[in-house]
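Chain A, query sequence.
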Amino acid sequence: MLRQINLSLLWLVSLGAVLIINSINWSEFDGDEWIGTWTLESVGGQSIQQQVEAIELLVAAFGAGETDISYTDDWTFDSDGKWHRDVTWSERTASKQVTTPFGFMGTYSLSGSNYMLTLTEGVCTALTTDTDNVKGGIIELETESDFAKIDTGTWARNGGTLTLTSDGGHVLVFKKK
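Chain A, predicted structure.
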């Protein structure tokens, strides 16, 4: 009887372990905690929305009238050590709308809690309804990043939040998409 209880208990524990293992999202533990797409939420402790609102007030103060600005900033880190950043800036006034997608790409490497990002290319294309001043409504520019071509620092991940603290003091906080 005691042997049957021990075997039943062993079977129950084994079943529980199998159920727990099957319920774990293993993609979260793929060896590189950066893989995937992340949305930039804040820079230097100030949320992206706070920064956009401050720019809208500044633009209005210089007489441009009411301006509606939207901004998205998504960073994707691939398993092959490459990354790309897709930024879209859209500005609408009563008379025009300008949408500017920016693209940045490069490589990254991780060593413990240290990171290195290398920028290899940056492109900006502005699409505008102001065709009186811009022929065809399209402007293409090669652009330089406002960050160094190589950025190093430390990183930490807590669930769906990734925080990068560069050696230069910039703190970027991302949320997993």
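The longest helix spans residues 2-23. Strands lie at 36-43, 46-47, 68-77, 82-92, 97-111, 114-128, 138-142, 150-158, 161-166, 171-176.
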